[in-house]
Structures are given as C-alpha cells and as structure tokens.
Amino acid sequence: MAVLNALQEFESSLGLAEQLLDLEQQYADPPSVADETVVRGLRGGAAVLMVAAFEEFLRAVMAEHLAKLSGNAPPVIFDDLPKAIRLHSIYGALDRAMRGARYEEPTERIDRLPDIVRVCSQIGKVIDPSVFADTEGNPNSRNLRELFKKVEVSDVFRSIRGGFEVGWGGPQAETFIADKLDEIVNRRHVVAHRASVLNVARGDLREGCRFLQVLARVLDLHLNDHINAIIAQDGGA
To answer: What per-residue confidence (pLDDT) applies to 101?
Structure first.
C-alpha cells in the first residue's frame, strides 16, 4: 500500500465531511421535525470532522517537511539552519522531554530520564521534526501563524495570500484567510461544546470544506518551497 503524504491524507479525511454533507443535502432545508435530529447529526459531524482533519494535516505537514532537514546526514548542518528553527528545535525538544508529551498521561520524573539524555545528546546536531507540529489542540489563525514562525516564516498569511487567491478564484480582503479560518474553527467549538447546529447553513459548511482544501494546498506548497530554499541556500540541493 502506498504511503500517503500529509496533503493526500487530509483530502481523504476531508472527504468524510463532504460525504456527510452529501447525505444532508437529501433533506429539506429547514428540515422537518421528524428529520431534525438526523440533519443536526450530519451537519454537526461535518463541522467537527473538517476541523479535525485540518488540525491533523498541520501536524503531519510540519513533520513531513521538517524531516527533510533531519536524519543521520542532514542536508544542512545545525548551525546553518535559520535561528527560529534552531531555537525551537532545542527548546521544544527539551521542554517535551522534561515535561512529558502533551495530552498523554503524566509520567514519573525518573521515567523521563532516558528521553532527556537522548535529547541532550542530539542538541546542536539534528532537529526533531515532531516538536514543530504542536497545534495546541486548536488550528486557529493565531496557532497557525505561530507554527510557521517556528520555521522562520514571519507572517504565513501574507506569504500565501497570492497563492491562496489563485486557488480560491479571486482577490480577497487582507484578513480574509485568517478570519475565515477562525470562523470555521469557532463553529466547530460551538457544535462540539453546545450542540448548536441547525443555525449552521449547509452552504457555509460546503464553503468551509472548499476553503480548508485550498488553504491546505497552498500551505503544503509554501512549506515545501521554504524548506527546499533553506537546503538550496546552504548548497545542499
């Protein structure tokens, strides 16, 4: 079986949300009383799934492309990497080793020693791609911007704006990408925590899927080009 990359995995997962919306389309809008529960479930499921797929994509795409700078014979020596990458590689790896992995059951300090020793042995030699992939459980615009700052992209929304507008089909307001992402993520929060669904228009859910697909494609391309440029600048390409 072929190994899918982060973007392919995302588009496959996003397809699950789209399938729910295809099923929901069969019901009247607004739904009858008899169909209301089904429609709520389908719309709510789609709202949650699309954001979960995007969050997993962000983790996977960062790890995938940062892996190009890792390995036993990295193409760029550690000291030649951009400052932001060096800083987060060291501090991120140490923090995780000292505190334990986020979202996992806490372990005893003695049990963390092997990981701390391993991380210390790698400091200044090789990066750990996985430490760049933390979305803090919320793939909103603030956290997305912070993810890319860790790899020396100061303003990811400004950097991808041109590519996004080509994929979206026309120019948009300067804050459109960040605002639309926050709208989609906040809708997930409302659905997940308040079970409030019927006020979510099916058209907005369709647009949300399309937006996340375009955004994921341009992020994947931009990150790929950014890491390749780091390698080329060091003479490793």
So the answer is: 66
Predicted pLDDT at 151: 96
- What is the amino acid identity at position 148? F
Which candidate, 215, 177, 219, places its Cα nearest to that of 61? 219
Name the residue range of residue 124's domain. Answer: 6-233
Domain count, the chain: 1
- Is residue 97 domain-resident? yes
pLDDT given at position 237: 43
Mean pLDDT by 10 residues, the chain (237 residues): 79 97 94 92 95 96 94 87 92 78 69 74 81 88 96 96 97 97 95 78 95 98 96 70
DSSP 80: G
Cα–Cα distances in angstroms (integers) from residue 49 to residues 40, 52, 103, 107, 219, in the given order: 14, 5, 20, 31, 19
SS3 103: coil
Is residue 1 one of the residues assigned to a domain?
Answer: no
Q: Give the span between the Cα atoms of 113 and 98, in whole angstroms.
A: 8
In a domain, residue 79? The reply is yes
Instruction: Note whether residue 124 is domain-resident.
Output: yes
Nearest to 74 by CA among 127, 32, 124, 24: 127
Token match 């919306």: residue? 21
**Taking the model in full, what pTM does it have?**
0.90
Listing DSSP states for 148-179 in one string gives: HHTTT-S-HHHHHHHHHHHHHTS---TTHHHH
Single out the residue of 88, 89, 40 nearest to residue 202, CA to CA: 40
Judge contact between 21 and 42, C-beta under 8 A: yes
Q: Are 71 and 126 in contact (CB under 8 A)?
A: yes
